């Protein structure tokens, strides 16, 4: 099928071309993100392939449908950027990659935790400048610390197991659908207020939904332990960034590790090193020595990119052959 791949980077081309073996599909790569003004690039493309920061609201979907698009193939797991109701009304099928190395995201999450606790980001710079002083680098053991995991699906469950089995942390969890395997490991499900009150470290792994939007706001921060470490590798909108900045300034929040940011659409995945960043909230975050930010790279491993390309192309093939796809990959409102 003819596929318009939006927001395509060199690594997307590499992995999609590698897995498009026969070749099965005619892949045309566009560097631009999908927006209302770039949607016209997809005229007569039955398939549009997109990533996390492409815009798929009702006007964009209407335009795509009127131009002949039938399938939206997300090359990611999250689908908070798609107006699913509009897609359904327009007869557009939306598919995604439900799991592509949840280990990649879980391991990156733990990497952020250790970086913040042992201050690797500061140590790296110091040693390169010949500064071997340990002043200001004092960390803490994760062993026996209480870690609260919000959302124990595929990624959260792996994070919980790494911390429980490897670091011997006391892991608390919150999810509407508790995971029986985690319970057997001794991980305790508690309500959110208990998790906030008892956790030394809180890590977010729930999806962004109307219910979880700004879940971490000023009220939630107030309920947390003084000095708490907050990690978000899920979706930026789950955290009210301003509330976190206030928490950092007052010292109530001890450290923050982010792989996602609520306004990341204007920043992440692009080289802006020669530009003046206009987002004052983001630049304020960058000034804290106890904040580390990565630009939505938690998923970015070879294993995950292989899996994303293979599953996305197989989703497109299933749609072409049956005009339908496996229930596990179809996303509905
Ligand atoms: P999943 O669907 O396997 O797990 C999500 C879990 O969150 C489920 O157990 C669900 O019951 C729970 N949940 C739903 N609403 C909740 C609520 N209100 N409070 C607490 N828990 C709630 O998803 P998976 O694969 O574990 O991914 C989690 C999130 O990670 C995704 O939604 C996505 O936004 C993000 N992600 C980030 C990546 C990155 O590179 N930074 C890459 C892949 C996913």
Compose a concise summary of this entry.
The chain has 333 residues and is of the alpha/beta class.
Write the layout of secondary structure elements.
Elements: E1 2-5, H1 10-19, E2 26-29, E3 47-50, H2 58-66, E4 71-74, H3 84-89, E5 93-95, H4 102-118, H5 120-128, E6 146-150, H6 154-166, E7 170-174, H7 180-184, E8 188-189, H8 192-198, E9 201-204, H9 218-223, E10 228-232, H10 241-250, E11 253-258, H11 280-286, E12 291-293, H12 302-322
Parallel strand pairs: 1-2, 1-3, 3-4, 4-5, 6-7, 6-9, 7-8, 9-10, 10-11, 11-12
Helix pairs in contact: 1-12, 4-6
The structure holds 1,4-dihydronicotinamide adenine dinucleotide.
CATH superfamily of the largest domain: NAD(P)-binding Rossmann-like Domain
Write the CATH architecture name of the largest domain. Answer: 3-Layer(aba) Sandwich
Number of structural domains: 2
Q: Rounded to an integer, what's the Rg over CA atoms?
A: 21 Å
Q: How would you sum up the major sheet?
A: 7 strands, parallel
Supply the helix-strand structural class.
alpha/beta
Q: Percent range for helical residues?
A: 25-40%
Strand runs, count: 12
Q: Please indicate the percent range of residues in DSSP E strands (runs of 2 or more).
A: 5-15%
On the 0 to 100 scale, the average pLDDT is 96
> Secondary-structure element sequence?
EHEEHEHEHHEHEHEHEHEHEHEH
Number of helices: 12
CATH class of the largest domain: Alpha Beta
How many angstroms does the end-to-end distance come to? 25 Å
For this structure, the CATH topology of the largest domain is: Rossmann fold
| Cα shape | globular
**Which small compounds were modeled alongside the protein?**
1,4-dihydronicotinamide adenine dinucleotide
Q: Could you give the order of strands across the largest sheet?
A: 8-7-6-9-10-11-12
């Amino acid at each position: 099928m003819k596929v318009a791949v939006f927001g395509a980077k060199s690594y997307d081309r590499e992995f999609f071309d590698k897995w498009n073996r026969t070749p099965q599909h005619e892949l045309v790569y566009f560097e631009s993100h999908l927006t209302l003004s770039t949607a016209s690039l997809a005229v007569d493309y039955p398939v549009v392939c997109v990533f996390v920061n492409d815009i798929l609201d009702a006007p964009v979907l209407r335009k795509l449908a009127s131009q002949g698009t039938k399938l939206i193939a997300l090359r990611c797991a999250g689908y908070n950027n798609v107006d699913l109701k509009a897609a359904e009304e327009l007869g557009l099928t939306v598919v995604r990659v439900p799991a592509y190395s949840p280990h990649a995201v879980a391991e990156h999450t733990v990497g952020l935790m250790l970086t913040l606790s042992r201050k690797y980001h500061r140590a790296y710079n110091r040693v390169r400048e010949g500064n071997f002083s340990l002043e200001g680098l004092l960390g803490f053991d994760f062993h026996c610390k209480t870690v609260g995991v919000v959302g124990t699906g595929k990624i959260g469950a792996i994070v919980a197991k790494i911390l429980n089995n490897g670091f011997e942390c006391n892991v608390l969890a919150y999810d509407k659908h508790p995971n029986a395997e985690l319970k057997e490991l001794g991980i305790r499900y508690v309500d959110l207020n208990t998790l906030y009150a008892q956790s030394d470290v809180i890590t977010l792994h729930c999806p962004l939904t109307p219910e979880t939007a700004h879940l971490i706001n000023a009220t939630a921060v107030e309920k947390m332990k003084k000095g708490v470490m907050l990690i978000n590798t899920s979706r930026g909108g789950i955290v009210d960034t301003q509330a976190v900045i206030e928490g950092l300034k007052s010292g109530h929040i001890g450290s923050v590790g982010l792989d996602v940011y609520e306004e990341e659409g204007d920043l992440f995945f692009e080289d802006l090193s020669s530009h003046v960043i206009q987002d004052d909230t983001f630049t304020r975050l960058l000034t804290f020595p106890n904040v580390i930010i990565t630009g939505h790279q938690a998923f970015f491993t070879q294993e995950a990119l292989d899996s994303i390309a293979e599953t996305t192309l197989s989703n497109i093939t299933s749609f072409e052959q049956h005009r339908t796809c496996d229930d596990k990959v179809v996303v509905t409102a």
